[in-house]
TrEMBL record:
Entry protein name: Methylenetetrahydrofolate reductase
Pathway: One-carbon metabolism; tetrahydrofolate interconversion; Amino-acid biosynthesis; L-methionine biosynthesis via de novo pathway
Family: Belongs to the methylenetetrahydrofolate reductase family.
Any one biological process term the GO annotation gives: tetrahydrofolate interconversion
Catalytic activity: (6S)-5-methyl-5,6,7,8-tetrahydrofolate + NAD(+) = (6R)-5,10-methylene-5,6,7,8-tetrahydrofolate + NADH + H(+)
Length: 308
């Protein structure tokens, strides 16, 4: 009866019934030093057994990481079975330079590009297209498709990109990127599942049928997150500050709180039908690993051994 069902629902641990049918992808940034490269490789090795759909490597402002992004993506493609995606932006690059970079990826066996407009290298400056370059991410998508049949992901903003004239104009822009040939959108991070669901509904109403994968940022440093959030238009809810209050000298406790918050967000997204999630790992594996574990994901090798 209904009362019994309600009691059982209240009794069940939050994550006990998740089927482990979520699929995940992980984002890394290119390492600057040998030590950071070690951290990155250890993160890739920790997360690889979870069988990500792909892992992606970001591209620094103004193309500042051009070589490092390429080297990292090419190494993942060469040394792991995971599909590797390279982020690429239009900033300070001519169409010829973009062509050269894209052809280099294709030759290295990289088939997936995360195509972005990018932000100017000087913080807060306005984006001015390169005179011979692409003016927007939609233009870049069309340009890349003309070079090779890449799989392409683009950015989406559940809380609207800060430069957009309106939420609707931003949604129209997302549709242009998908109509230009992108296969999916990956969202900027957000902390309100409702903000994502409302965006998903508005996208569906605008005729967008491609998948919109929520981007999950596990937060263990609120001050740093506030800085990112201010640049990209994401809201930091007041409860986030309260949850981290007094934990400055407790790094381990901060990690536990971070995992709990992100896992709760992922659990709510899952309950709302989301089955694909993209993690901004910040090159640290444990938080994303713990959250994936709570979502029911297990290392694929272990599963194969159990079945045997
Ligand atoms: P666009 O889709 O071109 O949109 C930029 C702005 O212009 C929006 O406000 C849009 O609404 C508006 N616009 C575009 N075309 C039109 C038009 N025709 N008419 C009116 N308005 C228009 N940055 C990096 O530098 N490196 C990275 O590796 C990187 N990775 C990212 C990954 C993800 C998943 C996300 C969500 C963001 C990433 N970014 C990265 C940040 C991104 O570069 C910035 O948010 C940038 O400001 C916008 O890029 P975009 O691709 O969304 O641009």
């Amino acid at each position: 009866n209904q009362l019994e069902d309600a009691r059982r629902a209240l009794d069940a641990p939050l994550f006990a019934d998740l089927a482990g049918d979520a699929q995940v992808s992980f984002e890394f940034f290119p390492p600057k030093t040998a030590k950071m490269e070690e951290t990155l490789w250890s993160a890739v090795q920790t997360l690889a057994p979870l069988g990500p759909r792909f892992v992606s490597v970001t591209y620094g402002a103004g193309g500042s990481t051009r070589e490092r992004t390429h080297a990292t993506v090419a190494r993942i493609a060469r040394e792991t079975p995971i599909a590797a995606a390279a982020h690429l932006t239009c900033v300070e690059a001519s169409k010829d330079e973009i062509r050269e970079i894209a052809e280099g990826y294709w030759e290295a066996g990289v088939r997936h590009i995360v195509a972005l407009r990018g932000d100017p290298p000087v913080e807060g400056a306005r984006f001015i297209p390169h005179p011979q370059g692409f003016a927007s991410a939609a233009d870049l998508v069309a340009g890349l498709k003309a070079i090779a049949p890449f799989e392409i992901s683009v950015a989406a903003y559940p809380e609207t990109h800060p430069e957009a004239q309106s939420g609707q104009a931003d949604l129209d822009n997302l549709k242009r990127k998908l109509d230009a040939g992108a296969n999916r959108a990956i969202s900027q991070f957000f902390f309100s599942p409702d903000a994502f669901f409302r965006f998903r509904d508005r996208a569906a109403a605008a005729g967008i049928t491609d998948e919109i994968v929520p981007g999950i940022l596990p937060v263990s440093n609120v001050a740093q997150t506030r800085k990112f959030a201010a640049m990209c238009g994401a809201a930091i809810p007041p409860w986030m500050d309260r949850l981290f209050e007094g934990l400055d000298d407790h790094p381990a406790a901060r990690q536990l709180v971070a995992a709990t918050i992100a896992a709760e967000l992922c659990g709510k997204l899952y309950a709302g039908g989301v089955r694909n999630l993209h993690f901004y790992t910040l090159n640290r594996a444990e938080l994303s690993y713990a959250i994936c574990h709570l979502l029911g994901l297990r290392p694929q090798v272990a599963q194969k051994e159990e079945a045997a």
